[in-house]
Amino acid sequence: MKISLLTIKSIPMNKAELISSIAEKAGFTKVQAKIALDAFVCATTEALTKGEKVSLVGFGTFAVVKRAARKGRNPQTKKEMDIPAKNVIKFKPGTELTGTI
After folding, report:
1. Bridge-partner residues for 82, per DSSP?
2. Is residue 93 assigned to a domain?
């Protein structure tokens, strides 16, 4: 069964709409879909916290990368400031996802 990955809308999909969509497409109740989505988010968060990558073949890869320290400018005062290094989450879309947009 082929499931469309994205519905292009002018407004972003919120969590409740995503849960409803998952429930409809997978034949789950909304409670089951919420549990599945929460489990996915929890598992992904734990893996990224450990520094691991999360790859979903065809959909994409979530990974933690280190952003270097850099100089920035406060837009209100125009004063230069230092922005410290930090870890950020990057998402690289997979081939199935990029082919549907």
Report:
1. 71
2. yes
Give the C-alpha separation, 6 to 99, whole Å. 11
Whole-structure pTM value: 0.74
Contact 64, 88 (CB under 8 A): yes
Structure tokens that stand for 12 in this block: 């972003």
pLDDT tens, residue order, the chain (101 aa)? 455 555 555 688 899 999 999 999 999 999 999 999 999 999 999 999 999 999 999 899 999 999 999 999 999 999 999 999 999 999 999 988 888 77
Task: Specify the residue for token string 């290094």.
Answer: 85
**35 and 22 part of one domain:** yes
3-state secondary structure of 99: helix
CATH of the domain at 87: 4.10.520.10
Q: Are 28 and 37 in contact (CB under 8 A)?
A: no
